[in-house]
Specification:
about 15% helix, alpha+beta, seven-stranded antiparallel beta sheet, two-stranded parallel sheet, globular, about 20% strand, about 200 residues
Length: about 200
Amino acid sequence: MSINRTYTGKLESRADALTLILACTSDLLRPVNPETIANKDRLVVEHGAIFVIVKDRSQRIRDDQFWSPSRRFTSGIRYYRQTTTRLYPENKVGSLTDDVYDFKDGGLIKRTFQYTSADNILYLVVSYHSSDEDRFDELTTPSTDTKFASLSKGVEQLLRNPVRSTQPKNTPHPPSSSSSTTTTSKKRPHNNDVPDSCKRKKK
């Protein structure tokens, strides 16, 4: 079965991720609860889909897609590009803009953020969006969504605290079999927070 998204929008900052987590703890949104997930359930990988997962450390959440190695932003968000084949440890090297990887033509971008609350509950925020800049710009950021205006003080308080946990190296986990091959994408994903090492240099 498919796992329903928590929110439709984009994840640009730590404030966005914390807003969604607080919205779930305040019953404004419904998170993905591991107790309701079966082993065969999968995240629905679509443009604008964001999932807030109350993470069981012993459980794997899958999306049945292939992804590049991650790059970490200063905000604590990790960034992945969709590829056409599974990557093994020996070929997980290089820049996300190199031709080392067979990026999927028209593929998505995945971003993840992990946070452990004061009562030791682990939250994983996973977002997917198009690499097309215009489509990305059309999406709403949770921290600017008026539905969550009442959470702003709580988010500000959390932002003053350090991130309480490190990101997993690659979440959700990739599938075990290869997917169909498509041509390599040439378009750079939009991101105001992409590290310099992930940006193409203009010639």
